[in-house]
Design brief:
mainly alpha
Length: 116
């Protein structure tokens, strides 16, 4: 005696799967009434007084670093990026000099080991 897995309810044995697939391919997506466009969403966000929009801080100048460099790419939150650029401007340092400054402040030695 074999136990049924319940697939008979989903697709009866006498149904033609090829016809069902053909019908499914011809179906068009239905537009839902609760779908909203990007402009409506933007208007809703603009109407909220407590929403603070953040934009990237514009980099006014770029100085070349001294010595051999290697690229460092990271994805950080916009607020963190803005803080880092602002700190670099306040210290009047390049990005790599600012990173070195922060590592020194955090107590990380030249080999990357935190000092205790």
């Amino acid at each position: 005696m074999t136990k049924s897995l319940g697939f008979e309810k989903v697709a009866p044995r006498d149904s033609n799967v090829a016809d069902m697939l053909k019908q499914a391919a011809e179906m068009k997506p239905a537009v839902r009434e609760d779908d909203v466009s990007d402009t409506i969403i933007a208007r809703m966000i603009d109407s909220q007084p407590e929403v603070i929009r953040q934009t990237s801080v514009q980099v006014a100048k770029k100085r070349k670093s001294k010595g051999i460099t290697n690229p460092l790419n990271m994805r950080v939150r916009l607020a963190t990026f803005n803080r880092y650029v602002t700190l670099s401007d306040q210290l009047n340092k390049t990005y790599d000099e600012t990173l070195e400054y922060l590592l020194n402040k955090a107590g990380v030695d030249i080999e990357g080991i935190p000092l205790k």
